[in-house]
Amino acid sequence: MNKTLKLHLGCGHVHLPGFLNIDINPKLHIDLCADISNLPFDSSSVDLIYASSVLEHFGRHTWLVVLSHWSSLLKPGGIMRLSVPDFLQATLRYQSNKDLSELIGLVMGGQNDKNDHHGMIFDFQTLEKGLNTVGISNVERYKWQESDVGILDIDDFSQAYLPHMDKDNGRLMVLNVEGIKI
């Protein structure tokens, strides 16, 4: 009997039940402390990869290499689910209120430690093209409310709104997409 293998990459402070929670920073709740750009899993062995607010931490010259590695781990038909800061929403928010201070962390990262810097920005077209390039098809936006974190009522960055935590009237500042491994 094959067990479903679901990876939660760059889990940070969030522990998702039913997932192998992986982060480069050692914490009590993580299952594996590892560099997510070079994971120790066999090719075509993973059913689902979830990475929220982590792909943007790789540089503009390396994010596609990392994404290709993750894609190689997925079984055919496996799901790649990503959440990244949405540059379009950041620009729209800035144009509406001219307050750069609330966007610096979203665009540049929290910069609280050596791994907390952003090296890439995304809009839907850029992320979709990258996913297609590494063999992920049927890329579409997903609603966080219908994902594992929404169903389990776990707050993570896939639900980042401005004003902060205003999920009813605020602007969703992240791009939540998923696709299927060909």
Write structural notes for this entry.
The protein is built from 5 helices and 9 strands. It has helices spanning 63-73, 87-97, 104-108, 124-133, 148-151, and strands at residues 6-9, 20-23, 32-33, 46-52, 74-85, 136-141, 161-162, 171-172, 174-181. The strands form 2 sheets. Strands 3-2-1-4-5-9-6 form a 7-stranded mixed β-sheet. Strands 7-8 form a two-stranded antiparallel sheet. The chain is globular, with a radius of gyration of 16 Å.
Secondary structure topology:
Layout lengths: L5 E4 L10 E4 L8 E2 L12 E7 L10 H11 E12 L1 H11 L6 H5 L15 H10 L2 E6 L6 H4 L9 E2 L8 E2 L1 E8 L1
Parallel strand pairs: 1-2, 1-4, 2-3, 4-5
Antiparallel strand pairs: 5-9, 6-9, 7-8
Key descriptive features of the protein:
alpha/beta, 5 helices, Rossmann fold, 7-stranded mixed beta sheet
Characterize this entry briefly.
This protein has 182 residues and is of the alpha/beta class. 23% of the residues lie in helices and 26% in strands. The longest helix is centred in the middle third of the chain and has 11 residues, at 63-73.
